[in-house]
Every structure is written in structure tokens, then in C-alpha cells.
């Protein structure tokens, strides 16, 4: 976790260092959608009682996102962008378990972008195709819901209640993609994305404080349309 924080601080410093160049830029706006696949991760229940770690699968989800940014005229291979998206990573609890959980994520990321032109010509000075990438820190808003949290067994049956909480956490956001400039100001993009965040949630259920820590590593396959101006 400390290593990730150092990476995020370094990327944020890069953003602040080159931000004054923003006035002289080629702007772009991207709209994209696709799928999100969250890797098997640890869900740690920290309280009440002893800490328990559970290895759980996560269901796939759809994703929708929007990005705005610019490529510097003085340094056309370098750019900055702000990206916002929405996806979910719902735990797929084992069969026979009455739990039903959901995790909704809305990350907003500040990205340092880079691109490599391919097949340049007079109509497309930065290339008919552009291989691009980006990385930066993200602020991840998330909402966790877990149904049927176990409380106690009574003569009348098991007493359960629902758990819910919101969390804001810093995470890592990285991208790698290929853009096809099919028109001077329009591009079709194929993009791979990786995000990593470790949110923590707490809620008081029937007088007991429940705490969960979740490691969320998500792979994203995306297709989008980009407008350059």
C-alpha cells in the first residue's frame, strides 16, 4: 500500500509540474463503454470478533465513461486528461450462502497521457493510428451493500440485517489503447484499463460495528469515440 501511495504522489507531482502548459493545447473529448472484470480478491471482515479473510469471486459488469483532456502543441506526444466512469464489482458469494453483496464504483482520475504516431501523412500529422497510454491517481467513490449480515441465532431463527456504507479512497488508474483517426477530428478507440483500489467500509448493525476491507483489482475492455478540437 505504501508503494502505491508513492506512485500516486509521483504522478500527481508530474501533473502539477506541467499544468501551466494547458493553455497551448490540442483538446480532445472521449466517450467510451465496455466491460469490467474484477480479479478474485480478499474481503476482510475486521469486526466484530476476530478478523476473517474471505477469497471471493466478483461478477462482470458493464462500464460507461467520459474523458476530456489535451495534447500539448509544444510537446505533442504528451497530454493531460480528467476521466470519470462508473462500473460495479459485485461479490459472487458461494452457493448456499444467503449473502447478496454489491459494490458500485465511480472513479474520477487525473491522467498523464502519452501517444506514439503511426502512419503519418499531411492529413494526419500525428498519424492515421495512434498508440496511446495514460496513468494517474484516481479518487474512487464506492457504495457497498451486503444483505443478510449474520447477527445471532435465536429460538425463533437467525436474526439478520443489511449492511451499507459509502467510501472515498485514492486508487491507481492505468490505460493502454489504439486510436484510429477515420476522420480529421474523429477517432475510434480500443482501450485496455487497469484499476486498483482498497476501500474500507463500516456500518452499525443491531448495535454492533461491522468493518470490511476489500481489495479490488479490475481489468477493463473498452471501445470509444474521440473528438479532437
Search tags:
229 residues, mainly beta, Porin, five-stranded antiparallel sheet, 1 helix, 71% strand, elongated
Portion in beta strands: over 45%
- Kindly name the structural category: mainly beta
Question: How much is the radius of gyration in Å?
Answer: 21 Å
The averaged pLDDT comes out at 85
CATH class group: Mainly Beta
Question: Looking at the chains present, what oligomeric state does this protein adopt?
Answer: single chain
Number of helices: 1
CA-CA gap between termini: 39 Å
Large-scale geometry? elongated
Instruction: Give the fraction of residues assigned to helices.
Output: under 10%
Q: Report the count of strand segments.
A: 13
Physical arrangement of strands within the biggest beta sheet? 1-4-5-7-8-9-10-13
Overview of this structure, please?
The chain has 229 residues and is mainly beta. It has a single domain, classed as Porin, CATH 2.40.160. It has an eight-stranded antiparallel β-barrel. Strands 6-3-2-12-11 form a five-stranded antiparallel beta sheet, with no helix packed on it. It is elongated.
Amino acid at each position: 500500500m505504501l508503494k502505491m501511495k508513492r506512485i500516486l504522489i509521483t504522478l500527481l507531482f508530474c501533473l502539477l509540474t506541467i499544468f501551466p502548459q494547458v493553455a497551448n493545447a490540442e483538446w480532445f473529448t472521449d466517450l467510451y463503454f465496455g466491460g469490467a472484470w474484477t480479479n478474485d480478491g480478499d474481503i476482510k471482515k475486521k469486526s466484530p470478533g476476530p478478523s476473517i479473510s474471505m477469497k471471493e469471486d466478483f461478477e462482470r459488469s458493464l462500464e460507461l465513461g467520459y474523458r476530456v483532456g489535451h495534447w500539448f502543441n509544444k510537446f505533442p506526444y504528451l497530454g493531460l486528461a480528467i476521466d470519470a466512469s462508473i462500473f460495479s464489482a459485485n461479490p459472487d458469494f458461494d452457493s448456499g450462502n444467503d449473502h447478496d453483496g454489491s459494490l458500485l464504483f465511480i472513479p474520477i482520475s487525473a491522467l498523464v497521457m502519452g501517444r506514439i504516431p503511426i502512419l503519418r501523412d499531411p492529413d494526419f500529422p500525428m498519424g492515421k493510428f495512434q498508440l496511446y497510454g495514460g496513468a494517474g491517481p484516481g479518487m474512487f467513490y464506492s457504495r457497498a451493500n451486503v444483505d443478510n449480515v449474520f447477527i445471532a441465532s435465536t429460538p425463533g431463527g437467525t436474526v439478520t440485517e443489511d449492511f451499507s456504507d459509502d467510501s472515498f479512497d485514492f486508487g491507481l488508474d492505468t490505460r493502454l489503447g489504439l486510436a484510429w483517426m477515420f476522420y480529421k477530428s474523429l477517432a475510434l478507440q480500443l482501450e485496455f484499463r487497469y484499476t486498483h483500489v482498497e476501500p474500507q467500509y463500516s456500518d452499525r448493525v443491531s448495535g454492533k460495528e461491522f468493518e470490511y476491507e476489500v481489495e479490488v483489482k479490475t481489468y477493463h475492455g473498452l471501445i470509444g469515440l474521440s473528438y479532437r478540437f
